[in-house]
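Operator note (shift B, R.M.): manual run for Class I SAM-dependent methyltransferase requested after the automated queue skipped it. Running by hand, logging everything below so the morning shift can see what happened. Input copied straight from the record, untouched. If output looks odd, do not overwrite the archive copy; leave it for review.
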Amino acid sequence: MSSISSALQAKLEQLSVPTQVTLPSGETVGSSDARVHLIIKDNATLAQLAAGQSGLLGQAYVEGGLDFEGSMRDLMQLASDVLPGSPVEAARAGWLTSLIAHLTSVWRHTQQKDAEQIRFHYDLSDDFYALWLDPKRVYSCAYYREPEMNLAQAQEAKLDLLCRKLRLQSGDRFLDVGAGWGGLLIWAAEHYDVHVTGITLSENQHAYVNRLIIDKGLQGRARMELMDYRDLDEHQAYDKLASVGMFEHVGRAQLSAYFAKLGRLVRPGGLILNHGITSGGVDNPQLGAGMGDFIEKYIFPGGELTHISHVLRHLAEGGLEELDVENLRPHYARTLWAWSDALEEKLAEAAATLNSEQGMKSLRAYRVYLAGCAMGFEHGWIALHQVLAQPQVAGRKDELDYPSDLSYPWRRDYIYRGSA
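Run finished. Output pasted below as returned.
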């Protein structure tokens, strides 16, 4: 056994998951009863394994430098074991790095770039997403109101939680910013009798939801527009507004302007609910150990995460007052594992759906992404916050046009009593 093999054998014996590794030379080291078998095809990938660069190992898998046998859950436990430290701490940014990230965020989030980045992700294949999402294709954190809920039930519970937090009433004019495949839009129209408008930059989602509106006979009560949130008409005030799984694409440098735009879209006393992923560290612009770079390259180009403390500051700078803040981090870990498990059960169908060399790369990337993010939420490296807000009153030129007090109940239990 070579010195490299001996060192690797010693390291493998310390892992919590029995693991076997086949080296580029063909030599195999590790446990004889392994639950995970890594097949390393080049020395660069072997070095990345030794350094615990999980993101680069994910990239090697996508590009063919690494293969594995075993479950995604065991593989993620292995990835956690080999990390040299917290990926949150590894990505902690100093003032210069933060300044560079801010300047980069400005130019990378023009309307044209945002449209390209959204379509890169969401227009991959509707049929592919349908394989592992719930029947309503809700592509955001579910809400496991009861422990025994399955994914479909938890997604309906989430849709209803959003509607209840917003106090949707019959006849309300409701705006869904980044409406996805229309889960919230349709739920609100059918269960709360609102007039709802959804917007998206995804051509696939736009076409799908408009077909869905016709199939359900909701013309006149629901509509889906293909447009950027910055182009929304501010002269047509909505009663309520939701932005779900969208503000991660806005960019940190644009967050204050984004929240200000949302505030101008609702009437005096109107409610806004922002639901999105936040970073686990206060000063890290992305996850370290190559994880953030992997997501940027293969999954969400242009995606940027912000700690909830900074989100609330940007929200206030945008003229909004936070009314309720809830962290659903454990719910998203369970959601992502449900997505990952569903994809793993349908790998053959997914391969047939994405039937090209690039499609196979996308499939491998999503296998790593879904399971890796589930692990990230479990460890608290990333989080999911729902923030309910309304436009601030004090200091506005039109202050006297606003209600003299808060226009939502003073007790939180209105959110949780019953359901639609």
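Quick read of the result: The CA atoms of residues 55 and 294 lie 5 Å apart. The two ends are 65 Å apart (CA to CA).
Leaving this for review. - R.M.
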